[in-house]
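Q: My hope is that you can spare some time for a protein that puzzles me. Underneath my words sits a plain record pairing an amino acid chain with its backbone structure tokens. Those tokens are not coordinates but codes from a learned vocabulary of shapes. Thank you; the sequence and its tokens follow:
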Amino acid sequence: MDEKKENKRLISSLAVVIVLVALLAVVGFLFLKQPPEIIEGQAEATSVRISGFLPGRVTEFMVNEGDMVHAGDTLVHIHSGLAEARLSQAENMVDAAQALNRKVDSGTRSQIIQAAYQLWQQSKAALEITKKTYDRMENLYSKGVVSEQKRDEAKAAYNAAVAAEKAAESQYSLAKQGAQQEDKQSASAMVGVAEGSVAEVNALLDDQYLIAPCDGQIDIIYPHVGEIVSVGAPIMNLLRTDDKWVTFNVREELLNEITMGKKLKVMIPALDRKEIEVEVYYIRDMGSYATWRATKSTGDWDSRTFQIKARPLETLPDLRPGMTVIYK
């Protein structure tokens, strides 16, 4: 009898324990809250790549990694002996073209003009003599004193003198007029071409000193002093400290909570778990490569991943690109 009572008592106690456990499970299911879902992102900042058109050798850096710079500050000096040689050549071409242009514009030399004038005067004198001779021969021929052949020879000499005088006058006129208009235009164009070459080389040499396009912090310097860099090669990266944002990658189910223009509270562990407010300004599908695939053929679906960007609503000088940002 005592043993049966003891068994009943044990069974009753076990039943009570089972009932209590069941009650606790129901209460926990009904009243305990699910832990908030944590989305981890990171801080970003605009990075400006500093490069130039001038190929050459790095001779000096005016900044170091981590330095704060302002727009217009000189960052690096690149030397190019080839560009300087081309500049000297182009300047010499300008001098030569300008000299030719001055020569064309000044017209024919006075000595040449004087010589052409004297030849014209000589031709005029010869014409006058041959005309007198021809007139005399014509008069004698009419009187029957000279033969027709003599008269014709005098006429031929006179005609030749007329042609020679006209040719000499034409040469004198050309000498006075100077170069043709086409020659002047060509000489002027050559000056323009030469000056354009100088401007082109000077534009390249402008990049021998690269300057900061904006305020920011020097992030990375790629080459070392003495190294040769090519056209467009990156010299350094400049972080714009005034253009920072945070970025998250979230599944599309959360987009009903994160909308354009919405203000979110995020926490930055690296800044003593500081909480700040950010405003969403960018939402974009990351493409099929970031799609979460369904594990079941029925009752489930694929879920795309979206990239969210938000800007802090307060200035945070200590916020650095790469810092973790938490959104709950």
Notes: The chain has a mean pLDDT of 77. Helices lie at 2-31, 81-106, 110-142, 148-177, 181-206.
